[in-house]
Amino acid sequence: MADKSSQGDAKPEAQFAKRIDPVKDELTREQFQFIRQVELAQWKKRTEKLRGRNVATGLAIGAVVLGIYGYTFYSVSQEKIMDEIDAEAKARAPKTGAN
After folding, report:
1. How far apart are CA 26 and CA 21, in angstroms?
2. Could you give the C-alpha distances from 37 to 5, 28, 33, 64, 68, in angstroms and in order?
3. Sequence-distant (≥ 6) Cβ neighbours of residue 20 within 8 angstroms
4. How far apart are CA 60 and CA 77, in angstroms?
5. What does the DSSP 8-state code read for residue 4?
6. Which residues contact 22 (CB under 8 A, 6 or more apart)?
7. Listed residue (17, 47, 50) closest to 35, CA to CA
8. Which residues of 46-76 are buried (b: 16+ CB within 10 A; e: fewer)?
């Protein structure tokens, strides 16, 4: 194999992004602005996904709350009917000496 450096038409290797620690590395103002722009773009992308999940979660919780609320009203109305039935049963029951 021929050595890459010996070839005259060899392409330079592409540079990859390296991880930068803003605390340790001395960065220029432009580099800080670029980092902030990238962070803001990533944050916006994540919030769009989270917003949909939050809406779905809120609707699910709201449905559960409304379900419990409705069931409570339904069960309370059933208790009134049972009280009326008990009152009728007591009125129709034969009276004994024990009562």
Report:
1. 9
2. 38, 14, 6, 40, 46
3. 27, 31, 35
4. 26
5. G
6. 32, 35
7. 17
8. eeeeeeeeeeeeeeeeeeeeeeeeeeeeeee
Q: What is the pLDDT of residues 39-89, one digit of tens each?
A: 999 999 889 889 989 999 999 999 999 999 999 988 877 666 777 788 888
Element (H, E) at 60: helix 29-92
Q: Which two tokens stand for residue 14?
A: 């592409």
Q: How far, in Å, CA of 54 to CA of 68, rounded?
A: 21
The token pair at 40 is 């803001």
Does the pLDDT at position 11 exceed 60? yes
Which structure tokens are listed for 53? 């999940």
Q: Tokens representing 50?
A: 């989270």
* Cβ(50)–Cβ(37) below 8 Å: no
